[in-house]
Amino acid sequence: MFIETKQLTKKFGGLVAVNGVDFSIEKGKINAIIGPNGAGKSTFFNLVSGSYQPSSGQVFYKGKNITKLPPNKIAELGVARTFQTTNLFEQATVLDNVLVGHRLRTNSSLLDAVLRTKRFKREERRCMEKAMEVLDFVGLTHVSDKLAGNITQEEKKRVAFALALATDPEVVFLDEPAAGINPGETEGLAELMEKMVGRGITVCLIEHKMKMIMKLADKIMVLNYGEKIAEGTSDEIRNNQAVIDAYLGGEASA
Ligand SMILES: Nc1ncnc2c1ncn2[C@@H]1O[C@H](COP(=O)(O)OP(=O)(O)OP(=O)(O)O)[C@@H](O)[C@H]1O
């Protein structure tokens, strides 16, 4: 089993945001979490990536119980994530944004940097190579010297992917990667996710764009009021009565 949650529960005061969720994220696949607004999707992500501690239940990563690990330790195991909004340094270039994001995760100390030790220079070179590699992967080489404030919304989404990929993750959690972009651009991001899976990276995403999810995801979990109401392939989810009921008059046509 790759990533597994067991009876995962998060309460905020009297509100049960995630309620006893058992789910397994399949390795090398595109896993999606859908559900109406406030269903608990982001909270579920935050629990799995260690940003929140569950009220009860467990998270297992490759058989290891990671429930109590802090987010940085979980990240070190190969788990990367993006957020609904990525705050880039708008006055810095795209390349520098990726370099800084990556450098925050390397080993050189401030002293190494000041003395420009061999280790620092080696890591600088490696960071630069990695940044160029991930920018090429996400299709942004041509804007690497542009200020992040001057690129399109869709390109900013790709920078968020690049930041996550620079850590060489085994799994990437993407929180609404296609929010706020048009259908053509959404198609491009879907292709990028497929390309990631082609490289052996597992993808888990939250998304409201149903057409995209139904086409893209290998496995879908549906949350409603914090509870898992369905799980399966696109076809299984499309024909599931509990899902149809939860979405009646909702976002299913989006
Ligand atoms: N830090 C928090 N403190 C208190 N309540 C919270 C907190 N985070 C989330 N909630 C509540 O938990 C519930 C689930 O929220 P969550 O953001 O996980 O839903 P979601 O499915 O991601 O929604 P959306 O699609 O709107 O992003 C909501 O009722 C929300 O108000």
Automatic annotation (TrEMBL):
GO molecular function, a single term: L-valine transmembrane transporter activity
UniProt keyword annotation of ATP-binding present: yes
InterPro entries assigned: AAA+_ATPase, ABC_AA/LPS_Transport, ABC_transporter-like_ATP-bd, BCA_ABC_TP_C, P-loop_NTPase
Pfam families from the UniProt entry: ABC_tran (PF00005), BCA_ABC_TP_C (PF12399)
Gene3D superfamilies linked to this entry: P-loop containing nucleotide triphosphate hydrolases (3.40.50.300)
Biological process annotations from GO: D-alanine transmembrane transport; L-alanine transport; L-isoleucine import across plasma membrane; L-valine import across plasma membrane
The ABC transporter domain, residue ranges: 3-250
The UniProt record lists the keyword Transport: yes
This protein's UniProt keywords: ATP-binding, Nucleotide-binding, Transport
Top-rank lineage group of the source organism: Bacteria
Cellular compartments per GO CC: plasma membrane
Entry-linked PANTHER family: AMINO ACID ABC TRANSPORTER ATP-BINDING PROTEIN, CONSERVED COMPONENT OF ABC TRANSPORTER FOR NATURAL AMINO ACIDS-RELATED
Protein name in UniProt: High-affinity branched-chain amino acid ABC transporter ATP-binding protein LivG
Species the sequence originates in: Halobacillus mangrovi
